[in-house]
Amino acid sequence: MTEIGLDESQNQTVAPGTFWRLMGYLRPHKGRLLVAFLLLGLATAADVLQPILVKIFIDQNLIPRHFPETPLVELGAGYLLLVLLTACFNVLQLYLFQVLALDIIQRLRVDLFDRVQTLALSFFDKTPVGVLVSRITNDTQSILDMFMSVLSTFVQNVAVLIGVMVAMFVLDVRLALYCLALFPVIFAVMWLYQKVTSPVFWATRQRVALINAKLNESLQGMGIIQAMRQEPRLRREFGEINEAHRRVRYRNTQLNGLLTRPLMEVIYLLTLMLVLGFFGLRSFSHVVNIGILYAFVSYLSRFFEPINNMMQRLNFFQTAMVSANRVFQILDNPSRRPMSEGDRAPTITRGEVAFEDVSFSYDGEKDVLEHISFTAKPGQTVALVGHTGSGKSSTINLLMRFYPVNRGRITIDGHDLREFQEEELRQKMGLVLQDPFLFVGDISSNIRLGDTQITDQEVKAAAEFVQADGFIQRLPGGYNAPIGERGATLSTGQRQLISFARTMAHNPTILVLDEATASVDTETEDAIQDALRRMRKGRTTIAIAHRLSTIQDADLILVLHHGKVVERGTHQQLLAERGLYHAMYLLQQGGSEDSA
Ligand SMILES: Nc1ncnc2c1ncn2[C@@H]1O[C@H](COP(=O)(O)OP(=O)(O)OP(=O)(O)O)[C@@H](O)[C@H]1O
């Protein structure tokens, strides 16, 4: 459905090479990884040696009515030392693996965030925000889990398995070979476990994704939910999804309870019987070595523990691979926002904007703009009017270089828009949107927008210019008044004025306005219109006008209809034409011909 798959829980495919690409992230940390593996090897060796000491004690010193003090103390101390060393090495290796994992994930998350910022806006048109948030948080988290626990568990447990096998072969080759025959059985059980639990595991993840989606919808639309009394419906729907989640989790728990421990326990007990039977039968013809018997029994229990550990993490491994696959899909996505082409890097000085026969389509099929041509001379205002969907915002999207021009060209001061450096465009072109976006912070940080060269005086001057200073001074904290998410604590008009001040503080040469349609009280409306007039003065302005009354003084008005310019001229000229503009104007004036 989307480029990266909307129904993420269903998308379980993993591209070949994903695992090794992920492992590639370990490369810069080779040194630390080597130390971690060394510690892991030492911990495993110290662990595997413990039963050997007991065996030596049993075989050489356990004689009835004899208390071998010195060997007992020595072997006891040796055993204790091995236990301590195992614990110390394990703590260190675990710590190293975890720090390594955190470093890698931090890198991956930042890389991903960087990449997302350079993606073309067309990508965001097709990808729901929730999916992207999930990529950057959940998916990187499951990769982190893999590096933190799955990888170290697998490596450690495989090391223990190898250590135990070596020790078994050293003790008794024939018996070790019998135990080796167990491997196919164990792998079969692991395969079975994976086969049975995998669908349930994915079903659980899918339910969690549904819960998140429902929560997202409910929380974002809380205003409308309360206003339309949708709470009972949403509560019921949320309850149903949760119930489905509970059921599938039950099933997961049942399967885990049945398959992991008990099944392995049965195999373990069968093997134990095999070993004891072997020694039993041997006792008829040979002297049984109790030390070896003890060591074997002890190794058997150490042998099954790692297998249990690995089995429990198989699904997490699979999840991490799917997550890594999705993360790499974003990193590899070819879509990029339009950047400067060529190395001429022109500058914007006068601010002359020209559209030369521009046509554009978002999807490559349907043109939403056709043959648009106009020129805005330095300091002039060109207004775009037209019904909804006529192409006004699309025109601005192209001018701001949010989307690349398909056909024709746009020039600024005679240079093709494609040639400008991003920095130059953003600095010299001020965009004011209908719905001003305020960042979490305070008033002054929202006006300054991270530009440390803008002084406090300039911030205040910009606010005064758009007449926002008055209400800002009245806020508790003034310019330092905190702003919550999206500026929810301010009124629409106040948010507008702050966004005007932000634009003015950066003193753009060209102003691009998407006039607000939100209704504010007359006083605020007057303040906004007055601010806009001051802002436009001396600046080339391209403005989308919803209320025709606000752009009567524009040098040129373009009337758009289905992506084409159907009328052009000044307010008076267009009224005289008695075409679409005239009809729209009459409609807005309440239908009276006289008012025109
Ligand atoms: N991001 C997009 N992806 C695909 N099609 C789009 C996109 N944005 C707009 N369109 C389509 O382009 C056409 C022109 O839309 P545009 O937003 O430019 O109109 P508008 O005149 O600004 O309308 P309004 O006054 O309602 O904002 C519409 O048919 C719309 O469906």
TrEMBL record:
Q: What are the subcellular locations of this protein?
A: Cell membrane
Q: Which residues cross the membrane?
A: 33-58, 78-105, 143-169, 175-193, 263-281, 287-304
Membrane topology per record: Multi-pass membrane protein
The ABC transmembrane type-1 domain, residue ranges: 34-319
Record-annotated ABC transporter domain positions: 353-587
Molecular function in Gene Ontology: ABC-type oligopeptide transporter activity; ATP binding; ATP hydrolysis activity
Q: Which GO terms describe its cellular component?
A: plasma membrane
Instruction: Return the PROSITE patterns for the record.
Output: ABC_TM1F (PS50929), ABC_TRANSPORTER_2 (PS50893)
Entry-linked InterPro entries: AAA+_ATPase (IPR003593), ABC1_TM_dom (IPR011527), ABC1_TM_sf (IPR036640), ABC_transporter-like_ATP-bd (IPR003439), P-loop_NTPase (IPR027417), Type_1_exporter (IPR039421)
Broad class of where this protein is predominantly found: membrane
Write the record's keywords in alphabetical order, separated by commas.
ATP-binding, Membrane, Nucleotide-binding, Transmembrane, Transmembrane helix, Transport
> What PANTHER family does the annotation carry?
ATP-BINDING CASSETTE SUB-FAMILY B MEMBER 10, MITOCHONDRIAL (PTHR43394:SF1), ATP-DEPENDENT PERMEASE MDL1, MITOCHONDRIAL (PTHR43394)
Q: What is this protein called?
A: ABC transporter ATP-binding protein
Q: Name the source organism.
A: Sulfobacillus harzensis
